[in-house]
Input
Amino acid sequence: MYKIATLNKISSKGLERFSDKYTIVEDSAAADGILLRSQDMHNMELPENLLAIARAGAGVNNIPIEKCSEKGIVVFNTPGANANAVKELVLTSILMSARNLNSAIAWTKTLTENVPKTVEKNKSQFAGHEIKGKTLGVIGLGAIGVMVANAAKDLGMDVIGFDPYMSVQSAHELSSSVDLYEALDLILPKCDYITIHVPFMENTKELINEKRLNMMKEGVCLLNFSRDQIVNEEDVLKALDSGKLRKYVTDFPTDKIVCVEDAICIPHLGASTEESEENCARMAVDQIMDYLENGNITNSVNFPTCNLGVCTSMGRIAVLNQNIPSMLGKITGILAERNINISDLLNRSKGDLAYTLIDIDSEVDEEELKKALNVKGIIAVRVIQ
Ligand SMILES: NC(=O)c1ccc[n+]([C@@H]2O[C@H](COP(=O)([O-])OP(=O)(O)OC[C@H]3O[C@@H](n4cnc5c(N)ncnc54)[C@H](O)[C@@H]3O)[C@@H](O)[C@H]2O)c1
Ligand SMILES: O=C(O)[C@H](O)COP(=O)(O)O
Output
């Protein structure tokens, strides 16, 4: 029986996919697999027997990836599963800020009497503009950025974008009328709206700072549905104060930004729709089950994609190792010494890490094999039989 711990509320549409080989446990210390959303795992002690973590969502900056890789814990996410939900909230936010809706609604709610007359007398203070013909800059053209760019085009906006690492799939899905730029700094002076859709990593920390804010048009609206640390908040506060930024829409409010009038603060709702929560949970559960039962890896952020289908041979050996020379030779050599015949083998690498799946024609003693494979470069060995 595999033990699964959930660190956040996970949609029942996902959890009900677990077969009777699984049990949901309260105590994560005993877990083979962990399912979570945004719970911060950085200060958590990783369970001794933990094999996999599945993030039902996109961002994995709440998970200590490097530590997981060292311990042979495969970390999954669910690319694209919540992208439509985020796209819809980004579009809502662009329209909301164009028409000053947050301030207008808040003001209307303060009225107590003579409402119709007061509304007509004062409404001009909230007059806005149309987004048709305005320029939107999209930073990061992955699952969300592409959807936002295409939808904004459909609403009549001019859309320009920047993504130096765009995938073939994104390039294929992006509308051909979106102009791509080779440097972020080139798009900044052209935009009326700028929306950020990059992961939070060392090289995206404070991607938007004073220097870049100064390059933007006067009165631009900045939208951040990625992570708070991608912008330098002090610099954003100054830009709001000076009027350089007309609005800052953020899905990641902080103590400092929450009370600022022209900051539109949303309580991290980008992925919080029924549909998105279900999509993410289904994908996360399917991926973790396929890994635990068959050793297959799909959508891992630390180990390579590797799939030998459902295991139908006598056994399957799964080896997580460093991507260094002669690993495969050592593994197959140790099997040959034990007279174990290999019926299928797949070896894939991703950066410094590699993964080898080997189907074998006879049973093997897992503990004895683990001892034999306790050599430099091997991170973890598992036998599925
Ligand atoms: N607000 C929410 O609820 C919510 C929901 C989903 C995702 N997110 C955040 O949005 C991020 C993006 O999600 P996604 O599903 O589009 O991910 P994704 O991986 O599909 O796309 C990210 C894109 O950013 C690009 N990129 C990376 N570094 C870049 C840089 N320095 N400059 C420009 N582009 C760069 C990548 O090439 C990729 O195309 C997530 O990592 C997460 O932090 C937030
Ligand atoms: O990166 C993500 O997928 C989002 O930030 C969603 O986070 P959540 O699952 O906690 O809503």
